[in-house]
Amino acid sequence: MSVMFFAMDINAILEDGTEVTNVKGFVIDNKKVYKTSEGTILTGTKKVKTIISSTILVPVELLSYIKNIENE
Questions:
Q1: What are the φ/ψ torsions at residue 33 (nearest 5 degrees)?
Q2: Could you tell me if 41 and 72 are in contact, meaning their C-beta atoms sit under 8 angstroms apart?
Q3: pLDDT tens, 7-52?
């Protein structure tokens, strides 16, 4: 399993309209995965719909690749 931590301090709106803060973004086995500070994976109706703000931890070239891969 390959894991890359690409963003932190993510503030986002989920599919169900809930606003979340302090989310982390990972790429795990070529899929984007967003986790809450408690470690809960945001998926289904709790999937990230819109990112309001974040701290990006990877170069721009790599971020372009990450934006185009599938969510968990």
A1: -130, 130
A2: yes
A3: 999 999 999 999 999 999 999 999 999 999 999 999 999 999 999 9
Question: Dihedrals φ, ψ of 37, to 5°?
Answer: -65, -20
For CA atoms 58, 46, 44, 1, the dihedral sign is: positive
| CA–CA dist 37, 62 (Å, integer) | 24
Distances (CA, A) of 58 to 8, 12, 17, 62, 72: 11, 19, 28, 6, 20
pTM score of the predicted model: 0.89
- Can you list the alpha helix ranges (DSSP code H) found in the chain? 60-67
